[in-house]
Amino acid sequence: MPIVPYKPAETQDPPELVAAIRSRRGGTLLNLDRMLLHSPAFAAGWNSFLGTVRDHLDIPPKLCELAICTVAVLNEADYEFIQHSPEFLKAGGTVEQLDALQTLKTSSVQNSLFNTTEQAVIQLSVEMTQSIRVSKNTMDSVKAVLTSDQSLVELIGVIATYNMVSRYLVALEIEPE
Description:
This protein is mainly alpha-helical. The chain has helices at 15-24, 31-36, 40-55, 61-74, 78-90, 95-101, 116-130, 136-145, 149-171. It is globular, with a radius of gyration of 17 Å. The two termini are 12 Å apart. It has 9 helices and no strands. The protein has 2 domains: 15-55, no CATH class; 61-171, AhpD-like. The longest helix has 23 residues, at 149-171.
């Protein structure tokens, strides 16, 4: 059970905010949304910010989802992993890659399953999540495989954002649907 009870699934208050969240989510409220709605101001900011991160960046979706799934595994955020695994697969990832990511806490990932760019994204995600600081070697590797400064800024932003999301999910013990 979550630390704070969820708002009811049929909640409509505040109407404009709930409508905006439902619109972004395809008509439903996730448990995460139902928790966020305890603070309408926080929920509004979250919906706007995460909507931008999810739908308006130029970074390739597969790299974005790879970073998110890596963060989810490292932070033991099952909810985040469950929500983003299908997105990773839709973006071109494989079940074998997802399985390999799930071993990150206990062993290094199988490099043969990931290309050079994907390996750099995983390493960046690991360093940003576990130690916050990124080694020069890792940053140089990431910069060498990304196409622009914009891609680098967006990827770092995605990793930082989903570290925030996972910490929120885990601290409040939000359950997967």
